[in-house]
Write a structure and sequence with these properties.
It is a single chain. The chain is mostly beta strands and 376 residues long. It is built from one helix and 28 strands. The strands form seven sheets. Strands 3-2-1-28 form a four-stranded antiparallel β-sheet, with no helix packed on it. It has a four-stranded antiparallel β-sheet with strand order 4-5-6-7, with no helix packed on it.
Length: 376
């Protein structure tokens, strides 16, 4: 017969063992679930040029766990070369980059099935809008109009045009800089200022976002002659800005404070001097900056970012298909999707989260002349 003290100690030991194993089982099941489920599927929208077989905007379901994709829907739109989503009302804005027939198309998006319901198309008196941005609170929408040298401000839903700025001037490149070419409009993260890059005159125009119906032009940043500023991006904090220059193939690094840009670095992205640098984006973790280059040696250039100074160091180069005009880093930082216009497909790269370098999966999303990607 066992002693009562021994029995009580034995039962306590067994109870602790059961609890320990139960906790381990729960943790293991949770880990397995996290590994198998991954991030929620993304709904992607691809804007295209419609001069070939494409008829507009294409919607896809993308699985961040596997990199697999499925086309959901497509919507007719004329040359929707850049897209933006309004967080305030779930509207999608697409520029119609079509010379004298240019406009701004508005859709309501269903995030589950990718369907876009047309709302309206408002003719843009400017020519060839190539970029669009939604004011953070949703009070207006802005386009960069490449061929007419204008910045156009639309009311929410693009019901009316509220204001237009038309710029003058030229640059030293007699082929590409005969006139102003507004290429990008972007708001600072705090929404206090709007910035418009002018490829034709090597300027960045700065607008204060304190007007009742439209921003107010407040400053001009003068850049290196012949650089051809194209796309500008801010870090999440908003104290750093990075500019890709299409013609010089350089990236200009700025500090930013309340609308003021101060240049601290210029570093080469396009070592082949192809004069076709295109898009620029930051990883969500803030560790890397990526830039696409075209026309010679097409690909993605990876830079590491110094967390103290914000300055760049070149880290690697990843070849891509022809004409990588635009690319998207998925919200989970695990994928880089590259719109290769001349290849008629979107290339899927896995982003190495340890070193930030893209790794080609060999997977391709077929679509005619893709030039812009956004995630809903």
């Amino acid at each position: 017969m066992r002693h009562p003290v021994f029995q009580r100690g034995f039962f306590i030991f067994v109870k602790k063992l059961i609890v320990k194993n139960l906790i381990f089982l729960i943790m293991t099941m949770g880990s397995l679930n996290a590994c198998t489920s991954g991030s929620p599927d993304l709904t992607l929208l691809a804007g295209t040029y419609t001069t070939g077989n494409s008829h507009g905007i294409y919607a896809y379901r993308f699985d961040p766990a596997t990199g697999e994709f499925q086309q959901l829907d497509s919507t007719a739109s004329r040359n929707p070369s850049f897209l933006a989503v309004s967080a305030a009302d779930n509207m999608i804005y697409a520029v119609n980059e079509s010379g004298p027939a240019s406009g701004l198309a508005v859709f309501v998006a269903d995030r589950k099935n990718g369907k876009l319901e047309p709302v309206r198309v408002l003719e843009n008196p400017g020519a060839d809008p190539c970029h669009v941005a939604v004011e953070p609170s949703g009070k207006y929408v802005v386009t960069a109009d490449y061929s007419s040298s204008t910045v156009t401000v639309f009311s929410p839903g693009a019901e009316t045009i509220r204001h237009r700025w038309e710029f003058t001037g030229s640059g030293p490149d007699t082929l590409r800089q005969k006139a102003p070419h507004i290429h990008c409009v972007v708001f600072s993260p705090d929404g206090g200022h709007l910035f418009a890059t002018d490829l034709g005159t090597d300027h960045i125009y700065v607008f204060s976002n304190n007007g009742p119906d439209a921003p107010i032009l407040s400053d001009t940043v003068v850049l290196d002659p012949g650089s051809g500023p194209r796309h500008l991006v801010f870090n999440k904090k908003g104290d750093m800005a990075y500019l890709i220059n299409e013609l010089s193939g350089t990236i200009t690094v700025f500090t930013h404070n309340n609308g003021k840009l101060e240049r601290i670095q210029s570093i080469t992205a396009d070592t082949l001097e192809a004069r076709g640098s295109a898009h620029i984006a930051l990883s969500g973790d803030g560790d890397c900056l990526y830039a696409s280059t075209r026309l010679k040696g097409d690909g993605l250039v990876t830079f590491s970012i110094d967390r103290e100074t914000g300055m760049l160091t070149k880290k690697g180069f990843q070849p891509t298909g022809s004409h990588p005009r635009h690319f998207l880093i998925t919200p989970d930082d695990r994928w880089i999707l590259v719109s290769c216009k001349n290849e008629n497909h979107i290339e899927i790269f896995r982003r190495n989260t340890q070193n930030g370098l893209p790794e080609d999966t060999g997977k391709r999303i077929p679509v005619d002349q893709p030039v812009c990607l956004i995630a809903l």
